[in-house]
Amino acid sequence: MQHRRTMAALVGLGLAVSSLAVAEEFTSIFDGSSRKAWKTNTGKPLPLANIQPDGLNPHKSGGYLVVHDTPHGDFVLDFDYKLSKGCNSGVFLRVGDLKDPVYTGLEVAIDDTTGTGFHDPGAFYDLVPPRVNAQKPAGQWNHMTITARGPRIEVVLNGEAVSQIDLEQWTERGKRPDGSSHKFTNVTIKDLPRSGYLGFQDHGQDCWYKNVKIKESR
């Protein structure tokens, strides 16, 4: 009996150590209180006023984006967010030129909407709609995980796999792989940078991001 208890304890310890090792692979890039390593896409430091009790709020930061100051290529980005009523925001990935984030990066849409269109929560903005709208109502916290490996990027929202894109399939400007049109007529999506800045968009209303962490993929 003692042997069984010992073995069970060792197994439990092993699982705990394994879980801890997985957790330690992530690096916190916003701890909820410090603006260190964050700036606007204008290059200016993130104002102290944008670090609020509920988290990092991009609204009125002075830039279109609040960005982490280190470029990222292949990664898993994990965070919580909350929207005010009617808010429209977004997560920008692999932005190559901070002066032109719309045409040098990808946006994962975050919006206070209930649909499954090209601009709804979890969409690759104007490119790929979410399979399902898994977002909670305004004022509630949501959890999003974005995994980027090479040309493939996947979005999980509140435990639901909502969208994915394979950049290699996007070979014609202004056209989706199925031939339908999208708004980005000045760039071939396949040729977007595979490494760049990530950031949160200010589109005119309050929203909050917290528990922001990243795991670099190799």
What would your notes on this structure say?
With 218 residues, the chain is mainly beta. It has one domain (29-216): Jelly Rolls, CATH 2.60.120.560. Helices cover 12% and strands 34% of the residues. The protein is built from two helices and 13 strands, in the order H-E-E-E-E-E-E-E-H-E-E-E-E-E-E. The chain has helices at residues 2-24, 101-104, and strands at 27-30, 38-40, 51-52, 55-56, 65-68, 75-83, 88-95, 106-111, 142-149, 152-157, 160-166, 197-201, 207-216. The termini are far apart. 34% of the residues are buried.
Q: Features of this protein?
A:
218 residues, mainly beta, Jelly Rolls, six-stranded antiparallel β-sheet, five-stranded antiparallel β-sheet, 2 helices, 13 strands, globular
By CATH, the topology is Jelly Rolls
Strand content: 25-35%
Question: How many β strands by DSSP?
Answer: 13
| Structural class estimated from helices and strands | mainly beta
Q: Count the helices. How many?
A: 2
| Oligomeric state of the chains in view | single chain
The CATH homologous superfamily: Exo-inulinase, domain 1
Q: What is the total domain count? A: 1
Order of helices and strands: HEEEEEEEHEEEEEE
- What distance lies between the first and last C-alpha atoms, to the nearest angstrom? 44 Å
What's the average pLDDT? 91
Largest sheet: 6 strands, antiparallel
- Classified by CATH, the class is Mainly Beta
Cα-atom radius of gyration: 19 Å
Per CATH, the architecture is Sandwich
